[in-house]
User: Fold this.
Amino acid sequence: MTAMNLGDSNLRYVNTSRPQLIHSNSKQSVTASDDYYSTPSEGSSHEEKEHGVRYDTPPTHMRPDTKDSQQSEKTLPTIRPVKEKVVGFDERSTGAATEGLTIKRKPVSSSSSDGTVIRRSMNDLSPPTPGVDDTPYIHFAIDQLTRDEEVVGSRSHSISHSISGDEAYPTEGDVEKQRHQRRIPHPPPIPPSSEPRSSPIENVLVPTQPAKETFRYPKLHFVPGPLHTISLSVLIVCCLLMMIGLAFCGAYPLHHDGLFDYDGTGTSRYFVFQYLPQILGSVIIIWLVIIQYTLQRVYPFVALASGPAAGSSEILYDFKLFPTNLLIPNLSYVGRGGPWLALWAITLWLAMFTIPLQSCLFQARYFVKGQIWRWTTVQPIAWILFGIYFLLILGLAALMLRFTIGETGLKWDPTSLADFLAIFHRANFLNDFDRSEIEASVARPPKDIRLGYWRNSKQGAETFYCIGDENAPVRRYSLERGKMRLNEKSIDLESQHPSSYRNDIFRGEIHNPTLRYRWVPWFLRDTFVVAWIVIAFVLLVAFLVVSFVNNAAEMGFLPQLPSPTTPFGFSPADFLYSFIPSLLGMILFLVWQPFDAYFRALQPFASLSGRGGSSAEKSLLLDYGSCLPLQVTFRALVAGHFRVAWISFVSLISITIPILAGGVFTAQYIPKTGQVVTAASKPGFEALVVFVIIYVLSFLVLFPTKRRHLPHGISTLGELVSFFYQSPLLAEETFEEPRSKIDLITKLLGTPLDEKMSSRYAFGIYMGQDGKEHLGIDRLERPGYGEMLVDFR
Assistant:
């Protein structure tokens, strides 16, 4: 008989009967002490290791974690039956290191061929720690085993022997008494002689800058075309030319009798004075709208590139990616944009009045000295326009200065969903978007994030480009079944219930068709679209009746206001019937712009929501929001997106309504009656009627189909990210550090070697990186998961 020194215990015999375990009910979660037996990893929190936070699990809903159970079983010592007294021990013990603390495990015996357990001599034993009793560790291991078996709940075990501090084999009653005294076992205290716990360094994102500018790591100073110095300079020159022309037209008539003789309506000279000023002004207006589209699309990235600031993540939720209302000045981002953006927002809104003002810039005046009618300039209008264009030049100069001096943080123009996937590919705060895809409004607690180059604190040599948070660890992935899987624990800290309960509720919500098709812009809801159609047709009928009954438009009508022109060229009647119609036409033009913006933005989701999904070219790579007006129409026609093509075309031609409406009516003297009436130019009026009819009929195509309905809006970066924050696309090599926009497009459009045809993508229910179902964007079909659920009807 050979004895082994385990503290004060003497081990003499080994029970040859079948081992049994006596277990008691415990509400301790199995994962509560997993960290005690596992080695520290990047995925574990230092705070959890220090304090050993535990959570109660409801006894009626306890489910064993297969993975944890397997890990627990692997740590159990091998129990072998013996036939005779032990003659030796194998004292080579194994331990699980937990932050510098080594736990001695029960020695594993080796069996001979006849079943006799052979033990090694005491000389092979590892020397015990002086003055340290190993008994608490053995008690703790036994409690862990009994709790694991209780959670599994498939068998009933009993422990026939245990190890006590004073005797080798305590009675079964003593063991049961100890177990009841310690319902929730705690790890034994660290012996004084043990080494202090070492705190592993968290792998976090660290801002960095490449040593030199290369093709892979270019300077983050890309500027989209409409905001480029050349483009803005050309527009500033155009505004200067307008100012010069206004100054000349304002000063010359003061020293001369008008500008040119009046030769009636419908002539080339009539076209020059009544339509040409609005046409020139409309070119500048369309240019300004394109600049505003581009500015709103890139400004969130520009603001994030300036560095982390308090609450900088609010940019993801507050800043619109495209104009949603041009009728009022957009002051929502003035506070963060600085004085230059405030000046731009005000001047852009003032510029929308230039076309109505230009429509009444010139009037016909009767000069008594020469007894002749001549075209002259309305002095107040000319100098008001001069001031607006001057402010507009200041606003454009402020934009040009901002995008010339400061970095934009952009490698290329982010115009499509593929660009957003590439930028957020390695973002380390995406867990904040948990369950956000089903929320009506996406908003999260503020974080300090920035856009730029980063490196991992534990992998300093690698530099990559993304949006990240300095205070958060990097996202960790593991390879599972050949796929990337996000490493994260799913625990509800508030209710202390397993997250499976909330997951069941969440799963029911994302499968709910009502929630799936809940959102569409308020002005595109069925009731509002019907209202727009009714209002438009009523106004059209009223316009046609007033214009053609008794031939009022051609024969003229009494202006009901004084019509004589003052020495400064101002006529109340002419101003009213030029400015007001043009202003109404300008409102119609501005009202249509949000329709165009949303249909452009919604088209990728409409393509992805088809039953068969869509190719990357017609979904992830669609960049209608960055295209010029006619360019959108042409590309949409080629892609088969006819509704987008038509709506975009109408948004462009609707600018003709304020142009024609402002110049079609003029005051005319009728010699037969000796009266001054307001009459319309017949060619201009007929063209106006045609464009108004096209505009009104276009409301019939605004009804959005189910494919354009989403759980929530898509006008901010945060709302877009909520649809792919758990998508496996973020773990694909395609979106990992593309060197350029061309590189990204090439990877998406190319066919992988292991696939017979190009991949298709869809919007629906997919299996996320966390192993749970989510609603958003992914490949239509993945090996092992089947097709996504796309059609909820």
Notes: The longest helix spans residues 572-608.
